[in-house]
Amino acid sequence: MKTQAALLVELGKPLVLAEVELPALKPGQVLVEIAYSGACGTQVMEWLGHKGEDKWLPHCIGHEGSGTVLECGSAITRVKAGDKVVLSWIRGGGAEAGGATYQWDGRTVNAGGVTTLQRHAVVSENRLTKLPDNLPLDAAILLGCAAPTGMGAAINVVRLRPGESVAIFGTGGIGLNACMGAAFAGALPVIGIDPNPQRRELAMQCGATHVIDPTGCDVLTEIRKLVPGGVDAAIEATGIPTVMAQALNATRQQGGRAVVIGNAKHGSSLTLDPGVFNQGKSLLGTWGGDSVPDRDYAQYGRLLASGRFDPRALLSSPYGLAQASDALGDLAAGRVGRPLIDMSLN
């Protein structure tokens, strides 16, 4: 069986729309018909070569999506044919089957345990979670990356409590989910910081109580006008090292904590004044918001489906698979919160 996939063949060049041959399923692998794929900054960095050398070219791309299980290999215990599923790069329960390889005009095409910018994908079982009730397949792409990383940062990592203050640096797809997670946790104020006016408006729609345009102002001064001693927590979602330091500096003494989510370009470095640690501040890292799919995805799905915020406000107008490069370009330029690639479109 063949399927259509958007392949990364050369760094910095448009993705190649190709017909690839699907492999036979190995134990622990599942064939999924993709309904929708998202994309995030990680794909943009892969595409542009900002993650450094790519030894796997050509390869499939994408790590968040939704779809329907068509066929299961042996040793599958958690999903069956016909199940609606979320595809995520974060490992859950089930078999770990490693990556798949496809064939394209005599060339081997590599893929990891999950890829989604294709109409059909061979996926490791532990990258699949059954679709939560009441969450449509298009909004469900947020569960593949943006919601567990952004909401998880607010709920699991900095562990916001009702009435605590938080500053969220960068209100793209992950930062917007962090805004929602902070609001669901009862944080106040929730301050969104982004130079893009559309993203600041989206932040207000997604739970931010205040927004700051970092161009033309001193961000820390503006934050301290709202929270004089500094915020209880800061969430960084830009990937810019100077902003990472700024996020830590924005927190209060004796208990302030900041988490870095954003991926910096390969070769970047972060400079900090070590005195911030003597002030009792903490700088944290995270792997996908410390989210555990089996524990957390149903909860995030309920929050997204609750009606308090509209998850579709984060999503772009649909792109077809042939427009995958346009979707990545629009994401890189900040024109969309989260691109939605609809496999039913040409």
Structural summary, described in words:
With about 350 residues, this protein is of the alpha/beta class. The chain folds into 2 domains: about 1-140 and about 315-340, Medium-chain alcohol dehydrogenases, catalytic domain (Quinone Oxidoreductase, Chain A, domain 1), CATH 3.90.180; about 145-290, NAD(P)-binding Rossmann-like Domain (Rossmann fold), CATH 3.40.50. Helix content is about 25%, strand content about 20%. The protein has 9 helices and 16 strands. The chain has helices at about 40-50, 145-155, 175-185, 195-205, 220-225, 240-250, 275-280, 295-305, 325-330, and strands at about 1-5, 15-20, 30-35, 65-70, 85-90, 100-105, 105-110, 120-125, 130, 165-170, 190-195, 210, 235, 255-260, 280-285, 340. The strands form 4 sheets. Strands 3, 4, 5, 8, 9 and 16 form a 6-stranded antiparallel beta sheet that branches. The chain has a 6-stranded parallel beta sheet with strand order 12-11-10-13-14-15, with helices on both faces. Helix 2 crosses helix 8. The protein starts with a strand and ends with a strand.
